[in-house]
Amino acid sequence: PSGLGVLYFLGCTFPVILMWNDKMFYDSRFASEDDTYHRTLEILILGSVATAVLHIRPVNYMADGENSIAMFGFCLGLTLASILHQLRYLELFLWVDGGPEAKQSGLRDAIGRSSSTVWFVAAMIASALAYYGSSDSHDDDHRILAGDSDTVFRQTINSTDLPILLCLIGSFSQMIYMFVMILFCFPNDGSHKKNTVPMNIDFVIHRTGEWTMLMLGESILSLLIVDIERGINYSLTFYSGIISAILLQYMHFRSQPHHADGHAMRQSRESGVAFSFLMQVYSASLIAVGGSYKMLLYEFTYEGEYDSGDGKRLLTPSYGPPLGRSLAGGPPSGFSEEDRQQRVANIFCISLALVWFSSDLMTISHKGISSNWDRCHCDKDSQFSKIGAFVIFLRICLLVFIATLSQYVSDPTPIAIIGLVGNMAQVILREMSTAIFPNGNVHDTNDGEKHSEESDEDDDKWPNTTQARTAHIIGN
């Protein structure tokens, strides 16, 4: 985990999130015909995304664009998926079976999708020139697995990292385009529905929940793929990670609305944009938490290591003879044991703090700042609740504590255990907040569902309350 590693983590994570969001936002508004053409198109899109994900390799491979095809394969998959998504929107403009708003949506989204496609194409060209323009024999996989003691990969960013930087810019440019369109181009009077097809927010809630489960499942998988070792410290770290993932799953679905009326996208444009951005930060943080748990467990896979002084690290596993190559089949990392553990602890603590912080901000976005501020006051005298203020203070202290924990503790087992205790404390404090802060009087309606007075108020909310329409695509 270095500055170079952070760049490649962000450059791989946000484009993949963009691919997921593209499909989610499309499926929440449009339905294609169930024919051979559209099935084939769907397979090609999914295959392109799979190609990109397949080539997400360790930084040592992706950063070595002259010898490894990983970077080119990743950029190629992103480019193909992005172009195919654009074709889907162009198809809307040409053959949609719906009103003029569907055609306008298709054309506008196809043009807007170019904001990321051009960057992905540039990244693909740059990576292709680096790989196919090199005179090397491209045998890096064999060379690294053989444990070349003279190969120590760099840890700093330079011009050869241009492709991953372009991928990151491409994902951010699409995000910025969408936010600018919603915040500055959509009118406040609801007339935006004349030239766009509203999303099915209930569908978005469901797919967002699926995405979150995938991120949490990645955390569990990261723990399971590490070799099992004997010892109490390994077991404590492993089960701390498992229970923490369960608690994070509980906190997420406990704090997020399950119906469109309570979602940020239904409240206002600003709230919807804030939620969309925070959800991406939240997702990336969950991935980092899962990866850091895996790195914490890796500390127990080997009982010791010896630096021979010639750039080659001799690792002594708890079983079998010493291995004359580096961990996970890669070249030497260049980090001492103390430095490595400190870096892992930094990533774990910062990512876990970001998970908590972004989760809290998403909860605020669903109700708005003013509504949440009103909840902090007592019903009788409208005075600020002292108990509530104390709970908020404890949550802030807990957030600051976990964010700075790596400055005091870097050993894997204590870090994992304290992280588990922190997640437990988060659950307790959130339950206390739910009990202390009122959420409006809940009552039954004619449809048999529960609603609060807050959701019944006809205030200046963004008029995005019409039922979502599904525009069908004529088979071609």
UniProtKB/TrEMBL annotation:
Residues 439-465 are annotated as: Disordered. Residues 444-453 have a biased composition (Basic and acidic residues). InterPro entries: Low_temperature_requirement_A. It comes from the Eukaryota. This is Uncharacterized protein. Keywords: Membrane, Transmembrane, Transmembrane helix. Coiled coil: none annotated. The keyword Secreted does not apply. It comes from Attheya septentrionalis. The chain crosses the membrane at residues 6-22, 69-90, 111-132, 162-187, 208-226, 232-251, 272-293, 384-406. The keyword Transmembrane helix applies.
